[in-house]
């Protein structure tokens, strides 16, 4: 299974702003389930062992930025995985 997300931000302030975006991808709790961050644009500033993602950047006044990322979840077809959107 492959999932993708897009986060759009816009600076409505008259000055530049420093932003931090925090999100996460699932954490596998079974040895037969594999979760992998496939793509991220821009790359996260940090990614923890618990799959917490963090982006930090400055956004000029009036500017917009889009953060996108995709991840995959692999598991045996016979296994029912709770918490995933089909």
Which properties best describe this structure?
about 90 residues, elongated
Characterize the largest beta sheet: strand count, sense, and whether it forms a barrel.
3 strands, antiparallel
Note the total helix count: 0
> What sort of overall outline do the alpha carbons produce when their principal axes are compared?
elongated
Helix and strand run: EEEEEE
- Give the uncertain stretches in residue-range form: none
**Would you report the number of β strands?**
6
Classify the beta-strand content into a percent band.
Answer: over 45%
Query: What's the mean pLDDT score?
Result: 93
Q: What is the CA-CA span between the terminal residues?
A: 8 Å
Radius of gyration: 16 Å
Strand order of the largest sheet: 1-6-3
Q: What class would the helix/strand composition place it in?
A: mainly beta
Helix content: under 10%
Topology:
Blueprint: E1 2-10, E2 17-24, E3 34-41, E4 46-47, E5 52-59, E6 64-74
Antiparallel strand pairs: 1-6, 2-5, 3-6, 4-5
Describe the model.
The protein has strands at residues 2-10, 17-24, 34-41, 46-47, 52-59, 64-74. It is mainly β and 86 residues long. The strands form two sheets. It has a three-stranded antiparallel β-sheet with strand order 1-6-3, with no helix packed on it. A three-stranded antiparallel β-sheet has the order 2-5-4, with no helix packed on it. A hairpin with a 4-residue loop joins strand 4 and strand 5. The model has no long low-confidence stretch (mean pLDDT 93).
């Amino acid at each position: 299974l492959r999932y993708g997300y897009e986060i759009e931000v816009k600076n409505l302030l008259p000055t530049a702003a420093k932003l931090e975006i925090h999100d996460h991808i699932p954490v596998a709790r079974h040895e037969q389930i594999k979760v992998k961050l496939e793509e991220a644009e821009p790359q996260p500033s940090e990614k923890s062992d618990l799959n917490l993602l963090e982006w930090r950047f400055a956004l000029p006044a009036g500017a917009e930025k889009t953060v996108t990322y995709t991840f995959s979840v692999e598991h045996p077809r016979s296994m029912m995985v709770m918490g995933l959107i089909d």
